[in-house]
Amino acid sequence: MLRAFLKPQRWGCWMQRAQRLLSQRRLPTREQQLAALKSEQYDVLVVGGGAIGCGCALEAATRGLKTALVEAADFASGASSKSSKLIEGSSSYMNAALQHGDVQQIYMLEQLLKERATMLHIAPHLNRVQPMLMPIYNALSLPLYWLGLKLYDVLAGNANVRGSHFLSRQATLKQFPLLKSEGLRGGLVYYDGQLDDARMCLALALTAAQRGAAVANYVRLLHIADDKLHCRLALMKNVLTGEEFAMQSKCIINATGAETDSIRKLDDARAHKIALPRIGTHVSLPGLFGSSHCGLLLPSRRLGEDPLLMLPFEQHLLVGGLDVERVGCSGVTAPTPSVAAVERLLQQTRDTLEPHVQLQPRHVLSAWTGIRPYIVCPYSSSEQQPVPHFLVEVSDKRMISLAGGRWASYRVMALEAIETAIDYCQLQPLETRSCTRQLLLDGAEDYCELLPLQLVQQHQLPLDVAQHLADSYGSNALELCAHASASDKQRLHPQFPYIEAEVTYACQREYACNLVDVIARRLRVAFVDALAALQLLPDVLRLMSEQHGWTQCEQKQQLRAAQQFLVDEMGLGSIVSMRAKLIAQALEAQQPLQMSVRIKRSKACMSHNLAAVTSSASQPADTILSQTDSVLSHKCDSDTKS
In 3D, which of 317, 352, 358 has the Cα closest to residue 181? Predict the structure, then answer.
C-alpha cells in the first residue's frame, strides 16, 4: 500500500511546482550583497541579524521599502540561537499569570499565542507542536493549574493547537518514565510549539533577501552621522576583510539585543542605558534522561526564579531555567557557562527524577549561556523601572531602537518598528498593510509531511537523514540533494544525521562564512554535543576550504577560532571534558560502514591523538585547546596531503 502511494508519478505535479520554486530561490552572493550596500541608498537600514532584526528586514522588504540588514557576526549568533526552543516561552508569561494573577501578563500571553499559530503556519518545517507535561505533587495546586491551563486554551482561541488535559499518575509516568514517582498525583499536559531558533532566524533573513533586501553578515556599524536630504550616513566595516565603507539610509533601526545601548550611544552619546544583561544557562543531556516526544515544565518554587524546562531537541534533552542578572558586565560577549550554574541545573534535574537515576556532570554533552537583556525605561523617574515586554524608542535623531521581546513577539515588534519608521521618517511604502502573517518563509513553500519518504525513495538516504533534511530545510531539501553526489551524502559523524552536502549548501546559499557558522547555527551539533562538534571540525574545514578557497594560514585560524568557541561558549574543557575518555573509547568502537574513506584513513591517528588530549579530565581549558589544535591541524594536514 505504501509502495503504491509513493510511485514516482504520484509526485509529478508536486515536483513540477518544486522545480519552479527552485528558479525563484536564487539568492545574491554575499559579495553581491556587499556591492549593493556600497552603491545604493536605502529607506531602512536594520542593524542586528537576530530574530527581531531579521523580522524587521522582512517586514520592510514586503512593504516595498528599500531595505538593508547588517549583522556584526553571523545571523542568530546572539540570544536568538540560545533560546529555550519554545515558541511561546511559557517559562515566564504563563507562570506569572498562573501564580501571581498578573492581568498584563495574561494579555501578553494572548498575543503571543496568536503569534505562535502564525509561526507554525509560515514555517511548518522549523516549528512544530510540542506537548509539555506539568507534574502535580500537591493536590491543592491541581485546581489552580488546571484552571490556568484552561484559561490558556481560551486565550489561544482558534489559534490553540490542542486542548490541555489531565493525566493519571500511571499515564504521567508512561509519558516520562524517569520522573520522580513519590508523591506524584498526576500530570497536566498542554501544547506549546518548539522551534529550531537559529534556522528560523536564517529563514527570515533569506526570505527578506528573496524579497529584495540586501542582507549581509559580518558587517559592523562603526559610526553614524547626519547627511543631506534627511538621510543618515553610516560607516560600516566588513569584519572578514577589514574594508570600511559608507552607506546612506533614511531610517536606522537598532535591533542588536545585548548591544542595544552601544548602538544607541553611536546615535547619541548622552543616551541612558536601557538594557541590563541577564544570562540563562542551558545544558544538553543524553535523550534517555527525558521523554522522546514530551517536554516537562516544573513551575518555579520561589519568586523570581524561572521554572525548570526539559525539552527533547535533536535526539537529546535540553535542560534550562536559570536566569540570573550579570552584575558589572557589558553584556556584549557571550559568557562562559559556569560550573556552579551547571551544577545547580543538574541538582534541579536530579530532584525532578527518580532517586536511583544517577545524573552526573559527566553526562553533560554541551553547556551554554545566552544573554537576554532586562529592559528598563530610560525616562522613568524611579531608577531601573522594568519594562515587562518590549520597548520601542525613537531618538531625537529618529533612530528607532527595539529592546526586549522574545521569539513569539518578533513579528509584532517588527511590525511596530516599521510602522513607527513610516510615521517618523516619512517613508513611502508600496504596501500599506503587512502581509507577514501569511507569508511562507524560505523552505515552507509546498512543504509536505511526506517529504522525508520522497527523499528516501529518490535519493537513497537513510530515514533519519531524510527526516533531518526535511525538518531543517523544508522543500529546499530537494535542491540540496539534487546537487549532491554520492560522496556528498556521506555522514559527517556516525551518530548524527548531518551529511557533507549540508556544509557545501551552507556556504553556497546560506551565507556561512566560518566553521562556527556551520557547527553551531547551520547544523546544531555544537549545542547538543560539543565533543562531537570538535570531531567534525576537520571535515567541515575541508569542505568549507573548497568553497571559500582558504589558504593554509586561514585554515589554521578558522580551526583555532572554532576550538575557542567550543571552549568559551559550549563548555568544552570546563564542563564537557569529563566525558572525554568515553568519547575516545567510542571513537575506537565506531563502525566505518557509513564513514568516508578519508575518515577510515585517519581514524587510527585521530583516536591516538584524541586519547592523548583527553587523558586527564581535569586539564584546564587552555591546555585542551592547545592540544586539540595540534591534533586537528595534524589531521587536516594529513587529509590535504592524501
Answer: 352
